[in-house]
Amino acid sequence: MKLSLSRVVSGCRLGTLTNLGKNGVQTMELPGCLLYTKTGSPPHLTHDTLQAIEGVPAVVQLTLSTLVELHEVLEEYKAGIGKFIGMPESVLYCSLHDSSTPCPPGYNSNKTVSIWGYGGRMEMTASKFMSMQRALQPDWLQCLSDGDTISGETSRKRAKKSVDRSLSFLDECLQLQEKSPELQGSMMVGVIEGGDVLEERLRSARETAKRPVGGFLLDGFQGQAMAKETKLKLMASVTAELPEDKPRLIHGIGKPDEVLECIERGVDVFESFFPYQVTERGCALSFSYDYNPDPEAAVLEQNGIQDAGKNGIEKDINETSKADPEITSFEIFLKEKRYRDDFGPLVHGCTCYCCQNHSRAYVHHLLVTNELLASVLLMMHNFQHYFSFFHSIRDALRDDRLDQLKELIFRQAL
Amino acid sequence: TSATVSGPALSLRVVAECGLSKARACELWLPHGPVLSPVFMPVGTQGTMKGITARQLEGLGCRICLGNTYHLGMRPGPELIKQANGLHGFMNWQQNLLTDSGGFQMVSLVELSEVTEEGVRFRSPYDGEEILLTPEKSIEIQNALGSDIMMQLDDVVSSTLTGPRVEEAMYRSIRWLDRCIAANSRPDKQNLFAIIQGGLDPALRTKCLEEMMQRDVPGFAIGGLSGGEAKDHFWRVVTLSTDRLPREKPRYLMGVGYATDLVVCVALGCDMFDCVFPTRTARFGSALVPWGSLPVKNKQFAKDFRPIDENCDCPTCHRYSRAFLHALFRSETAAMHLLTVHNIAYQLNLMRSIRESIVEQRFLQFVRDFMRTMYSGQERYPLWAVEALASVNITLE
Fold first, then answer.
1. In this predicted model, what pLDDT tens digit does every residue of B205-254 receive, in sequence order?
2. ipTM for this prediction
3. Does B175 touch chain A if contact means CB atoms closer than 8 Å?
4. How many CA atoms lie within 13 A of B363 on its CB side?
């Protein structure tokens, strides 16, 4: 794998990862996102419906938590998770946890990390973890790490532990990797911990960077525990310690404004669980990322922004379905009565399968009648919208229009 | 042979007939394109084929599917669908659509429904309002939906019911047919099919056939079956009907979808079928195969790395194993969609194979091969199927 940076603008890195995957021919543009999956499948989608989405990322994210129960099955299968899930050609990254389901705190120890599979909690030692990875054979893997610093107040002691444990796990896993023929082509992603303690963060970054890892995961920045100021300052401090020629990943960050903030602080790779969460609450991403609109499109975009801005504001006495409290200003809630006879697409100008073929009224109907197709169509739209957003970030960096894009996105962040 | 125009919106061409049995292969020309029969029509109740897109469904070769007047009449309602350019426009399905009348759902789904000469009175489960579905209202809704084939509102009674109610329902269905014909405001664009009733009583069925065949309708359905009656009675009613129904008009056997039933009823002269079974069983984790069904969500498939059916060329079998589907089924809707795709492919492939064998004059051999694969052992052949097939000169070895 090789990372080539074409430019750095206001801290944002624009570049390309090349020589990816088992055949070494895949590439990924940075900044970019991964394709989010559960149990190895993009939620609600089959291969055919996935193919109908434009801009699907080259790198697929698997989560150990949704795959851990398949350990025995995969050991017998032998050919690796990519083939098992029907994605033999994709580049695969295996993370520990699934960002859409936060882990309960307090279950890690010096020798174990707990992950929550469908059958419940499983304690992973480095040995068990690597055994699982040998059965999976991913292209990239997040090293076993202790990121249990995101709930409530984290003491210095706990922050220090997260760094110590994660470094210990890293060394042990790297050793085990050396002895594993199945994992010779796999790249270890070193995990940077340290909670909200600057010293620990710097120590973690420097020490992790000394190991032969192929990339870095900035962990522990998920959730609401850290104040935004602190979070962003720490992020910048961490990436300043990292080599330029290796990708920086982050988990748990999905909202467009937060994505931009992280990119400005040297992060390259994001997850795409956010469009999934939007789908699950019956919503469609509607925010504009078109920093170059023609006047007509600008009017439509403005309407779109107004739609999103009005979420839940209309007090309809008969409204039996309430929007999820997590709903953001970047999306519209299709179950609202006003969409019942709205025959326009989810988002004007969107070229996704749903917007090209169906109306807001139809999706509204599917949601009201609890039909499975609602999630399929929303997932297709939301993924495509999100992938297009990342495309526009790269365009903006290339065209020196980052400020316009930022202004547009932050205007919609309310 | 040339096509017979059965109505302004339908013509049928008998392409081939099995020399032995009553099986035939036809071309059915409808407003939204040709349909090759024998045909299985998947059921897309609420304007969606459950988790699969219109494009996927079309890609599997489906050219006609069902929507339900009762469900769509409730939500989102006929006015909205009319605004959306009919059900075709609303769900963006450009192939053919058949809608039932709403009669069956009302009786089977809803408590406290009351049937009078006027229509069916019931309480809406969505807002508690009292609703009266008359033949006129049913046709009005179906006209708004714009389906290529509409079904008359019939007086539906359970197939296991006996006594005077059965006869009453049969005669009422005839009267309701006339009311439906009168109410159809778009006979040039939408075909209204009659539904033969009469329970399991040959005399009543014959009477119904005689009467309904005097009406000018482009097609006929055999209704009131597939409701738990003995198979032995079932097939005799089917064959009695096809003996009398006109050759040049399509015969639609409602509610039939199990593979064996399809094969036998094609032999008995039926052209069109619908059933929720294949799509429903997919959502419950079962894959249909030529030798029965595989409950992939069962433990036994956890390490079975073969596709559902090695000889199936559907997108699911092309890419995924039983083991993966098993793993996925536990938590992901995608598993249901993958099985739905396969089961629809199975049904459509089955009908295609049946049709090809009729066209190529080898239907007899097809039936024998089919039964052998499905039942692995002649002692296992269902007696009713053996007898039904024998009645049309198809003997299994």
1. 999 999 999 999 999 999 999 888 999 999 999 999 999 999 999 999 99
2. 0.96
3. no
4. 29
Most B CBs within 10 A among A48, A69, A71, hence the mutation to make, goes to: A48
Gap from B304 CA to chain A (nearest CA, Å)? 9
Q: Which of B261, B271, B274, B309 is catalytic?
A: B274
* B178 catalytically annotated: no
Is A262 labelled a binding residue? no
Least confident window among A389-393, B38-42, B378-382: B378-382
Token pair 């099995």 is found at: B18
- Interval A264-322: pLDDT, tens: 999 999 999 999 999 999 999 999 999 987 767 667 666 666 667 555 444 444 444 57
3 state DSSP class of A257: helix
Whether residue B138 is annotated as binding a ligand: the answer is no
Is the model's pLDDT at B204 over the cut of 70? yes
Q: A265 to chain B, minimum CA–CA distance in Å?
A: 35
Say yes or no for a CB contact (<8 Å) between B327 and A70. yes
Query: For residues A193 and A158, what is the distance between their CA atoms, to the nearest angstrom?
Result: 11
Residues B223, B227, B229, CA angle at the centre, nearest 5°?
105
Contacts of A116 by beta carbon, 8 Å cutoff, 6+ apart: A65, A97, A101, A103, A104, A122
User: How far apart are the C-alpha atoms of A120 and A107, rounded to whole Å?
Assistant: 13
How close A358 gets to chain B, by Cα (Å)? 7
* Residues in chain A, overall count: 414
